[in-house]
Amino acid sequence: MADVSILGAGPAGAWAAYSLARRGARVALVDPTHPREKPCGGGVTGRALALVAGAFDIAALPACVIRTARFIDASSRAGAVVDLAAAGLTPATSLVVASRTSFDGLLLAAARDAGAEIVAARVTDLVARPGGFLIHTTSGSHTAACIVGADGANSLVRRRLARPFRRDQLSIATGYFAHGVTGDEIVVELVDDPPGYMWSFPRPTHLAAGICAQADTGVTARTLRARVRDWIHEQGLAPGARLEPYSWPIPSLAPRDFDALEVSGPRWCLAGDAAGLVDPITREGIFFALLSGEWAAEALASDDADPWRRYRERVRDEIGSELARAARFKASFFRPRFTRLMVEALQQSAGVRAVMADLVAGRQSYAQLKWRLARTFEVGLAWRLFARARRRA
């Protein structure tokens, strides 16, 4: 099996390294900083935990098990609480929130134990050449027959071998870690200016609170963080806590982008954020990072004459098509009229709350969402919400 260099040791890269090393590949996992804290919510769904269950003891992951999710409509200030346990979710199938230092550290240790070489260096450049690549790092240069780019939204592999993300294909996630405060409830406020949501996710030692907005909206990270700070105080989420600011780019693609995903070529592929595999509505990417890392390993370890094409087609067909549906929903999801009706439906319908619980836990696909809601939505509730909307109009 050819030797592989994986650039980036987040969930996509570490999981690809683990999966390849276990198959006997010679793997170099190159990253200067992992494991480290990352500015994101830190939610790990049950399906993501199921993927990594064989690599380490899930009980060893310090995490908050989420029991309730509170949704707030910014325009009406109305709110609704979804009880995940009442919806039939258990800690194993629901949502846990972990420090990314802890989660990524366990994945990195699993890759090392499986036989991957960990190279603590920053990649400064890479050059394609016959039979592979020359990789320049801050600790020297080495060659590799194949490359997996798992180096995030600003991926060097993407910039050198494909095309960098345009500004309209990125979101900025920004906010604060509120130290010394935690809990078992996530809070989500749906907003339309800019379209998206503010969130509070409890980790074991702090809250991760933030907002996400498309990078081309013209709103600065500083302005968005000020809004998050006001929201934290308004909601009483972290009284007296020390607030540590953060900002981070996240891919946020349009439907046409997913239809033409550029994730591989001869002897290279992209995984996770570097491939753009992030839910455009929730901005959840950990599950897709793990899944794409595993698929990259499977393709490289196969006897397929063109594993790069196999990987590309699988990602487009099985992940890209699902995320394209989410991107199409996104256009109307954050409009005030829709969010107001959604919160009212959550207040009044156990069936709608069950659907939302499965969305939070990553168990509900967008392909079946419309039909499940149609089956769930009681005629009486639909009529009341319709009449209320008519009166407002």
CATH superfamily of the domain at 4-58 and 100-166 and 255-329: FAD/NAD(P)-binding domain
| Tally of helical segments | 12
The largest sheet is: 7 strands, mixed
CATH architecture type of the domain at 4-58 and 100-166 and 255-329? 3-Layer(bba) Sandwich
Structural class by helix and strand composition: alpha/beta
Number of strands: 19
Overall pLDDT level? 89
Q: Low-confidence spans: pLDDT under 50, at least 5 residues?
A: none
Query: Residue share in helices?
Result: 25-40%
Strand content: 25-35%
Label the overall shape: globular
Strand arrangement, major sheet: 6-5-14-15-16-13-17
Determine the CATH topology of the domain at 4-58 and 100-166 and 255-329: FAD/NAD(P)-binding domain
Distance between the termini: 65 Å
Give the CATH class of the domain at 4-58 and 100-166 and 255-329.
Answer: Alpha Beta
Whole-angstrom Rg: 21 Å
Give the helix/strand layout.
Elements: E1 4-7, H1 11-22, E2 27-30, E3 43-45, H2 46-52, E4 63-65, E5 68-73, E6 79-83, E7 95-98, H3 100-114, E8 117-119, E9 123-129, E10 132-137, E11 140-144, E12 146-149, H4 156-161, E13 170-179, E14 185-192, E15 195-202, E16 206-214, H5 221-235, E17 242-251, H6 255-259, E18 264-265, E19 268-270, H7 286-301, H8 307-333, H9 336-348, H10 350-361, H11 369-376, H12 379-392
Parallel strand pairs: 1-2, 1-12, 2-8, 5-14, 12-19
Antiparallel strand pairs: 3-7, 4-7, 5-6, 9-10, 10-11, 13-16, 13-17, 14-15, 15-16, 18-19
Helix pairs in contact: 1-3, 1-7, 2-7, 7-8, 9-10, 9-12
